[in-house]
Design brief:
This protein has two domains: 102 residues, Ubiquitin-like (UB roll); 126 residues, Orthogonal Bundle (Fumarate Reductase Iron-sulfur Protein, Chain B, domain 2). The chain contains nine helices and seven strands, in the order ββαββαβββααααααα. The strands form two sheets. It has a five-stranded mixed beta sheet, with helices on one face. The protein has a two-stranded antiparallel ribbon with strand order 6-7.
Length: 237
């Protein structure tokens, strides 16, 4: 383990006292295998207790510590110091209102998530045990089940930055998970919701979402498959 001297710049904003965001620098000593989240903890616990951030599991599962690290959307808990170097910049994710420092208001993001009906729809009475599905049918939407709703993809999207009415990549990924589930019966309604100006057609295939996703979901491919479902009128392709 190698100890490193880090120069950490954080974009700070406290709406109670600041008119606009400003950068603040900190010097931190941390091991090269530390998470960026560990570094932020060292700053908050030992240097500046006013620093505000959001985090929970610290293991890349909850998605709550998404932020812009060295210009790229990442989870602070999955980003190691030796991957980003000794000069680290940290900002809140873009396109959502900043509440304070690195904490943004996630409600607009979750509002779009709810718009696509992200739940199982099937009017048939449930069977006694489970709704059976072949391994092949399950594999069809396996990639999009990995989403943890961290908002890294949506807040890296130029179309979302341009107009927050766009549902965004994460919502479309969640819709994809059900649209291609052979047991679900809500396709018509979901596809109609996405066949709008601010639905899938606002995607400009920039691929930012793919690079930003901490779960390595092929987001652009999923969006393309939803577009094909709309154009061909079927998910059987």
């Amino acid at each position: 383990m190698t100890m490193l001297q880090l120069n950490v710049k954080i974009l700070r904003f406290n709406p109670e006292v600041d008119k606009k965001p400003h950068w603040k620098e900190y010097k931190v000593e941390a091991p090269d295998n530390a998470q960026v989240l560990d570094v932020l903890h060292l700053i908050k616990w030992y240097q500046d207790g006013t620093l505000t951030l959001r985090r929970s599991c610290a293991h890349g599962v909850c998605g709550s510590d998404a932020m812009v690290i060295n210009g790229r959307n990442r989870l602070a808990c999955k980003t190691l110091v030796h991957d980003v170097g000794t000069k680290i910049t940290v900002e809140p994710i873009r396109g959502l209102p900043v509440i304070k420092d690195l904490v943004v208001d996630m409600e607009p993001f979750f509002a779009h998530y709810r718009e696509v009906l992200p739940w199982f729809i099937n009017p048939d009475a449930p069977p006694l045990r489970e709704r059976l599905q072949s391994p092949e049918d399950r594999e069809r939407f396996d990639d999009t089940t990995k989403c943890i709703l961290c908002a890294c993809c949506t807040t890296s999207c130029p179309s979302f930055w341009a107009n927050g009415r766009y549902v965004g990549p994460a919502a479309i990924v969640q819709a994809h998970r059900f649209i291609f589930d052979s047991r679900d019966e809500g396709n018509d309604e979901r596809l109609q919701l996405l066949d709008q100006r601010f639905g899938v057609w606002s995607c400009r295939t920039a691929f930012n979402c793919v690079e930003a996703c901490p779960r390595d979901i092929n987001v652009t491919k999923a969006i393309g498959e939803v577009k094909k479902a709309l154009l061909f009128g079927t998910t059987d392709f």
